[in-house]
Amino acid sequence: MRLLLSCEHAFPLIPEPYVQLLAGARHLLHSHRGYDIGAAAVCRGLEGLAEAALYGGCSRLLIDLNRSLHHRGVFSDFSQHLPRAAREEVVARYYTPFRNAVLAAVEEIIARHGGVLHLSVHSFTPVLNGVVRSTDLGILYDPRRHGERELARRLASTLRASDPRLSLRMNYPYRGIADGHTTALRRRCGDRGYLGLELEMNQKLVMDDRGRSAVVALLDDGLRRCGIGRG
Question: Is the pTM of this model over 0.85?
Answer without folding.
Answer: yes
